[in-house]
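Person: Please work through this fold.
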Amino acid sequence: MIDTRDLGRRAGAMRRYHRDVPLPARLGIDVIGIPAGDHIILDVRLESVVEGVLVSGTASAAVTGQCARCLDLLTDRLEVPLTELFAYPDTATDGTTDPDEVSRVVDGLVDLGPVVRDAVLLALPQAPLCREDCPGLCPECGGKRAELGPDHRHETIDPRWAALKQRLRGTEEENE
């Protein structure tokens, strides 16, 4: 929450804010996110406009997760842009917009929590990678392809021929 009362309601007034906000709960998706207790850094500018307060700036935080291909732990830095209009009560926006369409200034305060949460969740990759060319895991043995080398192979037999191979293997042992 940021108090807008010191900003005033005169259009054109502007204030900058820098906040280091601890997260009470994890923010993210299953494979990547910002852990609980970590901080989101907000650098925002609040501008008084005719209809309310325009908030613009960035939110940044360290994210941790798991590579979608090789399952290694990964860490990265995420910075997302923020732009949101918070409408004053009893203005023209009350009659022209739905209640959930525009954020509102409530008792002189703007709540950036939902705005930051939505921006962060939309910016997180659905399938994070430790690096763009991550080769992933071998589907046969589960080893990391990056560590297995280029000559790593598995003998694959068509399941329809597997019984014949088992039978022939027995005759090979008898011939020896």
Observations:
- The first strand starts at residue 2 and ends at 3.
- The helical segments are 92-96, 113-123, 145-148, 159-175.
